[in-house]
Amino acid sequence: MSSQALRYAHQLLDARAQSRIIPRISESEPLSVEDAYEIAHNIRNIRVAQGEQPIGRKIGFVVRKNWERYGIIDDARIPTWAPMYDTTVRFAEDNHGAQSLTGAVQPRIEPEIVFKLGKTPAPGASLIELADCLEWMAHGFEIVVCPFPNWEFTVADSIAAFGLHGTLIVGEPHVLSSATKHHLPQILASASVSLSCNTESSSVLRAAGFCNDEMDSPLHALWHLHQLLQKQSRFRQLQAGEIISTGTWTDACPIEPGQTWTTAFSGVTLPGLTVSFV
């Protein structure tokens, strides 16, 4: 796959730069998850060579009940991850922001919990040991994009295509105390979020979500990512300073310029986000 992986990496980067929709890679030949991560590794190397710096990871498909709604057409059904870069992560001032959708292909919005690692976790870190490595927690909007027609793809296609990552907008970080870290799985397990869309003529509740029943909390998603990376020697393991977006709590809703999206939490002391799209 090596030469083909590099070719597909350039093809996907070109489609992103030109805001083009392209056929799924899996349409032309079988594409395994391992093949997809090889393409992703090539993409990472090219982006770094062009001056972008990886600053974290996004976790995808942790909410298993949402898989069918994404147009996934195979049975892989596994959590995935992709790099995030200094060019794709931004912070909203006072939990308000504006974001251009220029160049975003079939954009959708996902409300997520975002962590920053203050310490590098040990290879065999437990859930509580991982929590102890966290520096802060924040609410974020991930703008996901898809270069494939009608948002239809295999899991491997999505891994190769940047993990569908477009932009992460991060709200106000909340530094975590030792006591909060110790109880974080229970705190997050009782939390919920609502997602609303506002225009000049209407305000509509579009989605609501709780922590993922399968993985219990975003902390479990982080643990699964940490375990997966132990098996992927070509990629760097989790490091202190990384920002981790842990997966959506609701369906990924299509977005358009002229809309303002807002969230509100219950069960956890995080402010909502308000972002206007232009």
Automatic annotation (TrEMBL):
One of its GO terms (molecular function) is 2-oxopent-4-enoate hydratase activity. GO terms for cellular component: cytoplasm. PANTHER family: 2-KETO-4-PENTENOATE HYDRATASE (PTHR30143:SF0), ACID HYDRATASE (PTHR30143). This is 4-oxalocrotonate decarboxylase. It comes from Herbaspirillum aquaticum.
